[in-house]
Amino acid sequence: MLVIGISGSPRVNGNTNLLLDAVLEGSRSENAEVKKFYLANSVHSGCLGCGRCDTAGSCHIKDDISEIYDCIKEADALVLASPIYFENISSWMKTFVDRGQFLWSKNLDVDTSKAGLFISVAARLSTDFACAEKTIRIFFKTLGFQQSKSLLFPGFEEPGSILDAPFALDESRAAGRKLVVERLH
User: Fold this and answer.
1) What dotted CATH number matches 2-184?
2) Which among 27, 8, 153, 3 is positioned nearest to 81, based on CA atoms?
């Protein structure tokens, strides 16, 4: 079983990445193969709106994002992690989502054997995650993945402050294990 984690955070040691690592650790503990991608470290371009994908069925831009999409085809579970920027996903994650436009025209049915999990961290306790959740929910549907859950953690502004909240790390590890166990049984 392959679980892919994609980070939309620019902070390698930030809260979002720490939680993504915990999810992947949980999946690995159930003997899943895991791969992790950092969008902020990738070489990529945004969607050009050229429309070529409508007829070609794929994006003509060949960069790190196209390689990630190739890996997703083989995945049994996909974990997307993004901090909240202006009550939505980060620009790195949004660029990644937008580049999936070529999948929109394919009108995929949801494959309930493939699972999606969304992790998000926000600085403010009062953060509304609704915009981010809606974007990710539609994206998972477009990919053909069944979104199983969202792990949402408001009130963690300082990088690494999530380490002071063991419940968040425990919940993330448990979600990673569950992604694997539910697919194998």
Assistant:
1) 3.40.50.360
2) 8
